[in-house]
Design goal:
The complex is a heterotrimer of chains A (211), B (202) and C (385).
Chain A lengths: L4 H19 L25 E7 L13 H5 L5 E7 L5 E11 L8 H5 L5 E4 L9 H5 E2 L1 H4 E3 H7 L1 H31 L4 H9 L12
Parallel strand pairs in A: 1-6
Antiparallel strand pairs in A: 1-4, 2-3, 3-5
Chain B lengths: L12 H10 L8 H27 L3 H21 L3 H25 L15 H21 L7 H5 L5 H9 L3 H22 L6
Chain C lengths: L1 H4 L1 H14 L4 H38 L15 H11 L10 H17 L18 H10 L1 H11 L3 H32 L4 H6 L3 H4 L7 H17 L11 H4 L9 H26 L10 H22 L5 H28 L2 H26 L11
Helix pairs in contact in C: 2-3, 3-4, 3-13, 3-14, 4-13, 5-7, 5-13, 7-8, 8-11, 8-15, 11-13, 11-15, 13-14, 15-16
The chains are: A alpha+beta (211), B mainly alpha (202), C mainly alpha (385).
Chain lengths: 211, 202, 385
């Protein structure tokens, strides 16, 4: 090779890139930049971002029972849960306050893994920029609640698996209830045993798998 | 100084060409333009004199060098006004572009070049004053005795000296001084290399 | 065709004729100058503004990016946004800086960059001032940039600035010599220093008699263009303003509009030097089919594109490499080239073509061999260990 051929070779590389940026597609050496606000890449299903609370059908019907497991597991301690009490000061199975501080949350997904009630899941919403730190980034229960349909939309695989599991558990529970009712009707002599059998399947045995 | 400003002697060539083509008037019939050109030349002279004074009076060497650059540019402007285009351009190229740059380089390599407390006089001051006065009288005498051909219409009407003529003059009648200058420059270059070279034996 | 070619010339003469109806002759002459000055004063900064956009776009495309496209269609308003940003930025002067020189230096650097527009033939009959010493005017005026750069670096009282200034002066002095010498063959052949005459001399073969098609013209063009890139401190010769080495060199301590003036001077120099290279070697406005001014701008912007292409491709030179290129390669080559031009002028055509190509090829080969031998395999660092 002659003197200076390396320079010419290098110049041709850049010229090729320049021409390809106009005439070639993104997979053939052209420009692969995505113009973000207008164009978006399809979201990956396993993408995870700040957690949200799932409810079934109506927002009153949320799955969270305020067990405080996620708040205890959370490494940066960004979850605050206060249990709701009724008039007689008896604890209810739902939270009065459920807040997640997005300025603290580190998107680890441990809350999702720890939750025994399939109530908290990682979201896909990453556009949370705000000018108000206390108001917009400290999310309260109302802002965190999202429907099961939404969950099915963003993560169909996980959502359908969890729905199937819940339906199965529900069916088992119903069957057990029916069996218990039948047993109770048939053998009223042993009501305590039947009641114990009816309680058992209502508790999920393992936390939902996320990946 | 007896620099007479009259007729078309200070007209830029373009203005003259325009006049002759359009068959308009000579410059003397357009007093406002003549006034502007006169003022321009006075401004150039002011720049030269002020720059020359400042380059001596500034205590900071770098400021002095910049003032000297102003003087050289002003002189180039005066050359331009006197229809010596080539000389003006060479003045800028050589003096401003090359000599002043080297002067600034030299200043930079000296110690305390930005120091305002430098002395401006040394033991040779009085001798320099005498020499300066001598040079001034010589120049004034020369200006006074030279017959300036301002009124010589033939000299004004002659076409501007072209580059071709200059080249022929340099390589024709003036070839000997031209070559001597080249030899001197080569000698200076070799001398500089010899001075700057590291001693191999040592 | 003829109408399009002379449209700007006719426009100007129409304006002058109309003004001549009610203005005295001296005012018409002043108006004539004022129109030219006004056009230059607009063209210079606008060229600079859009060169910044073109540069960013081209570089982005070479790096598989898109470049500015948010402000206006294709980012066409980006230069305006940049200008507003520059104007509203705080003007910071270092505490120990020489305030006056610090202020004057950016102005001094823009003046020559604007002045050299005067001798550029933008088209047929479209030269602002056809000086008889046009090329010399260009070279001498642009050589004064050195002092402005040096003033800027010195006035900043910053060691990086001073280093950048030293580098700038050393580089510009070094590259000015082969640049001027590479123009000499053109002057020998055309026997004129006027840029207009040089363009007219390249009108042979229906507008294709460009000097770049001759062996000496080609060698001179390469030399001139490399020196032009070095003169306006563009990559790969951007040692004086090397961001990664000396923190942007001589304009480290400049901000806001003063910095913008440096930027402006650099881009206008790039434009005018490309324009001069096009004028001297690529036939200026000569060319078939298109209007003359269109040819001029096509050629100039092609050369500017090559400058950007260099920037997108080549890494920065080392100081010794940069000096070696100027003194050991370009300078002897341009000297040989003057000889070759003389040989071309006096020899018969077949001998002239073959002989000059052989001479240039042989000298180029010898210079590369010599330089290769002088390039040290391993550098020894005096204080490195």
């Amino acid at each position: 090779m002659f003197f200076g051929s390396g320079v010419i070779k290098g110049m041709l590389v850049t010229l090729k890139a320049f021409a390809a940026s106009y005439f070639r597609g993104p997979d053939k050496g052209g420009i692969f930049t995505v113009q973000y606000p207008e164009q978006r890449l399809a979201e990956k299903e396993n993408f995870r971002n700040f957690p949200f609370l799932v409810y079934d059908k109506t927002p009153d019907n949320l799955r969270c029972v305020a067990c405080d497991i996620c708040a205890k597991e959370c490494p940066p301690k960004c979850i605050t849960i206060v249990r709701e009490f009724d008039k007689d000061n008896k604890p209810l199975k739902r939270p009065a306050v459920f807040s997640i501080d997005h300025t603290v949350c580190m998107n680890c997904g441990i809350c999702e893994e720890a939750c025994p009630f399939d109530a908290i899941f990682m979201d896909h919403n990453f556009e949370i920029a705000s000018t108000d730190r206390q108001g917009d980034l400290l999310l309260q229960k109302e802002a965190l609640l999202k429907s099961n349909d939404y969950f099915n939309k963003i993560r169909p695989t996980d959502a359908s698996a969890i729905d199937a599991k819940r339906a199965e558990a529900e069916a088992k529970k119903k069957a057990a209830e029916q069996a218990a009712a039948a047993k109770a009707a048939a053998a009223a002599a042993a009501p305590k045993l039947a009641a114990a059998a009816a309680d058992k399947p209502a508790v999920p045995t393992e936390p939902p798998k996320t990946v | 100084m007896r620099i007479a400003v009259s007729d078309a002697s200070f007209t830029p060539p373009r203005v003259q060409g325009r006049n002759t083509r359009k068959g308009l008037t000579t410059l003397s019939m357009m007093p406002p333009l003549e006034f502007i050109i006169k003022m321009g030349i006075y401004a150039l002279m002011t720049v030269c004199v002020a720059g020359a004074l400042l380059s001596v009076l500034f205590r900071n060497l770098f400021h002095a060098a910049l003032a000297l650059t102003g003087v050289l540019l002003g002189i180039a402007g005066i050359y331009l006004a006197l229809h010596a285009d080539f000389l003006a351009m060479i003045q800028v190229l050589i003096y401003v572009g090359a000599v002043m740059t080297l002067v600034i380089f030299a200043i930079m390599l000296t110690e305390r070049f930005g120091d305002a407390s430098l002395r401006q006089f040394n033991h040779q001051s009085w001798a320099a004053l005498g020499g300066g006065i001598l040079l001034l009288t010589f120049l004034v005498r020369m200006i006074q005795t030279t017959p300036w051909p301002v009124k010589n219409q033939a000299a004004l009407a002659s076409p501007a000296v072209t580059v071709v003529q200059l080249g022929e003059a340099l390589l024709g009648p003036y070839v000997f001084p031209f070559e001597i200058i080249s030899v001197i420059l080569i000698a200076a270059l070799i001398g500089a290399i010899v001075v700057a070279r590291k001693d191999l034996e040592a | 065709m003829e109408f399009m070619d002379q449209i700007f010339v006719n426009l100007k003469s129409t304006v002058l004729t109309l003004a001549g109806g009610f203005l005295p002759p001296w005012a018409v002459i002043l108006l004539c100058a004022a129109i030219s000055l006004g056009v230059i004063a607009v063209i210079g900064p606008v060229t600079m503004m859009y060169l910044t956009l073109i540069e960013r776009k081209v570089l982005a495309r070479m790096q598989n990016r898109i470049g500015p496209n948010r402000t206006g269609p294709w980012g066409l308003l980006q230069p305006l946004a940049d200008g507003i940003k520059m104007l509203t930025k705080e003007d910071i002067v270092p505490k120990n800086a020489d305030r006056i020189v610090h202020l004057v230096a950016p102005i001094l650097i823009v003046i020559p960059a604007l002045l050299v527009f005067a001798v550029i033939p933008f088209g047929k009959n479209m030269i602002p001032a056809d000086l008889s010493v046009g090329v010399l005017y260009f070279l001498s005026i642009s050589s004064t940039t050195t002092i402005a750069i040096f003033s800027a670096s010195w006035a900043s009282r910053n060691k990086y600035s001073l280093l950048g200034g030293m580098r700038a002066v050393a580089q510009m002095i070094s590259y000015e010599i082969p640049m001027v010498l590479s123009v000499v063959p053109i002057l020998l052949v055309t026997q004129s220093l006027s840029t207009g005459a040089i363009v007219r001399a390249q009108g042979a073969y229906g507008g294709w008699g460009w000097f770049v098609f001759t062996p000496w013209g080609f060698a001179a063009f390469i030399t001139f263009f490399l020196c032009a890139v070095a003169e306006c401190n563009r990559s790969p010769f951007d040692l004086p303003e090397a961001e990664s080495e000396i923190v942007a060199g001589f304009h480290t301590e400049y901000s806001g509009m003063k910095f913008a003036l440096f930027y402006m001077a650099e881009f206008m120099n790039a434009f005018t030097l490309s324009a001069l290279a096009a004028t001297l070697f690529l036939g200026g406005w000569q060319g078939p089919w298109l209007p003359s001014w269109a040819w001029f701008f096509i050629k100039t912007y092609a050369l500017i594109f090559i400058m950007l292409w260099f920037r997108g491709t080549l890494p920065r030179f080392r100081v010794d490499q940069m000096m070696n290129l100027a003194w050991k390669f370009l300078l002897p080559l341009s000297l040989i080239n003057i000889l070759v031009a003389g040989f071309w002028h006096f020899a018969n055509p077949p001998l002239a073509i073959g002989g000059s190509i052989a001479m240039l090829w042989a000298s180029g080969w010898i210079f590369t061999r010599l330089n290769r031998d002088y390039t040290p395999e391993k550098r020894t660092y005096l204080f490195g260990e």
